[in-house]
Amino acid sequence: MCDISTCTVMIVDDTETNIDILVEALGKDFDLRVAMDGETALEAIADEPPDLILLDIMMPGMDGYEVCRRLKAVPETRDIPIVFLTAMSDEEDEARGLGLGAVDYITKPFSPALVKARVRNQLELKRYRDHLEDLVRERTRQLVLTQDVTIQSMGTLAEYRDPETGGHIRRTQHYVRILAEHLKTHPKFRERLTDTAIELLVKSAPLHDIGKVGVRDNILLKPGELTEAEFEEMKQHTVYGRDAILASEKKLGQDSFLSVAREIAYSHQEKWDGTGYPQGLKGEEIPLFGRLMAVADVYDALISKRVYKPPYPHETAVAMIREGRGTHFDPDVVDAFLDLSDEFRKIALENADFEEERVLLSQ
C-alpha cells in the first residue's frame, strides 16, 4: 500500500506531446514511468507493476482496450486502477472502456489539473481498498486461529480423561486427511471433498470423542470387558459429544465451523450395515465425514495400547478393516484405506505413544 507521494503512475501514450503535458502535470507529485505502445507497456508492467495506469486507446499495434483486457485477465495486474485518457469521446467508447474494468475515462483535450485530481482520487481509493483488504486478511487469520484453538482446547479435554491416547488426536487427524485427499477425485465424493471441506474435516477431527468427557471413569478406564449396561453408557458418548458441540454451535449460527465436528462426533460409530450407534444409520445415510472417521478411529484403536487390550500389529489391523468392508465400513473408504495402508503405518509409527506400539508397527 503506497503513500500517495510515493505512488508510481505509468503513462501509456504514443504521442510525445501528451506525455510531456502529463509529465509536467504529475511529475512533482508521483513517480512516473512511460511507455509509447501496448506491448512495451505490458512488458514493463509485468516486470514492475505500477500503482495506477494512464492509458491511451488509439495506439499503433495493440490498442488500449486490448492492453486493459490483458491486464485484467492476470491476477498480478487485475487490481491496478486503469484510467483511459483518449480522444475517443463517444458514450459507446466510454462504456466499452469502463466495461473492461477501467476506473475512469477522461477525454482529450484534457485539463492537466483535472487529470491530476482524478489520479489522486483513484490512488486514495486504492490506498483505502488495500488497507481494507489487509484488515480483512488479518481478521480472517484471527478467526482461523480462534477456530483452531477452540477445537484443540475442546479435544484436549477428552484426551485428559484417557492419558493413554495422547497421540490419538494427532494420528486420526493425519489419517482422515490422507483418506479425504485420496478420495476427492472419486466421482462419488468430488463435490463433497473440496479443499475447504477437507480442511474443516481435519480441523474438526480432534472432537470426534469429545463426548467421552461425560462417561464415568469406572467405565471409560475399565481394564476389563464392559458389561452390557456399561457399554450402553459408553455408547452415549456420541450423544454427549453432539449435544456439547450443538450448544456452542447454536451461538455461532447454522453455518458454524462446528457443524462438521458435530457430524463427526455423532456419526463416527455408525456402521455401513446399520448395526452401529446411536441412530443405526445404514449405508450412505451415514454422513461422509463420519464414514471417514470410522475407518481412521478403528484402525488407530486396533494398533494402539489400551487399558483393556494390547496393541495389534499393523497387518492384523489392516486385515480386520478389510474384513469389515461393506459391513462395518463404507467399501469405497476401505478401498482408499487399503491403497494408503503403508501411509497409515508411517503416521502411526511417527506418532506412537508407547514403545510396544512402535515395535509392532516396525515389524
UniProtKB/TrEMBL annotation:
<dbReference type="Pfam" id="PF00072">
    <property type="entry name" value="Response_reg"/>
</dbReference>
<feature type="domain" description="HD-GYP">
    <location>
        <begin position="143"/>
        <end position="353"/>
    </location>
</feature>
<protein>
    <submittedName>
        <fullName>Response regulator receiver modulated metal dependent phosphohydrolase</fullName>
    </submittedName>
</protein>
<dbReference type="GO" id="GO:0000160">
    <property type="term" value="P:phosphorelay signal transduction system"/>
</dbReference>
<keyword id="KW-0378">Hydrolase</keyword>
<dbReference type="InterPro" id="IPR011006">
    <property type="entry name" value="CheY-like_superfamily"/>
</dbReference>
<feature type="modified residue" description="4-aspartylphosphate">
    <location>
        <position position="56"/>
    </location>
</feature>
<dbReference type="InterPro" id="IPR037522">
    <property type="entry name" value="HD_GYP_dom"/>
</dbReference>
<dbReference type="InterPro" id="IPR001789">
    <property type="entry name" value="Sig_transdc_resp-reg_receiver"/>
</dbReference>
<keyword id="KW-0597">Phosphoprotein</keyword>
<dbReference type="InterPro" id="IPR003607">
    <property type="entry name" value="HD/PDEase_dom"/>
</dbReference>
<feature type="domain" description="Response regulatory">
    <location>
        <begin position="8"/>
        <end position="123"/>
    </location>
</feature>
<dbReference type="GO" id="GO:0016787">
    <property type="term" value="F:hydrolase activity"/>
</dbReference>
<dbReference type="InterPro" id="IPR052020">
    <property type="entry name" value="Cyclic_di-GMP/3'3'-cGAMP_PDE"/>
</dbReference>
<dbReference type="Pfam" id="PF13487">
    <property type="entry name" value="HD_5"/>
</dbReference>
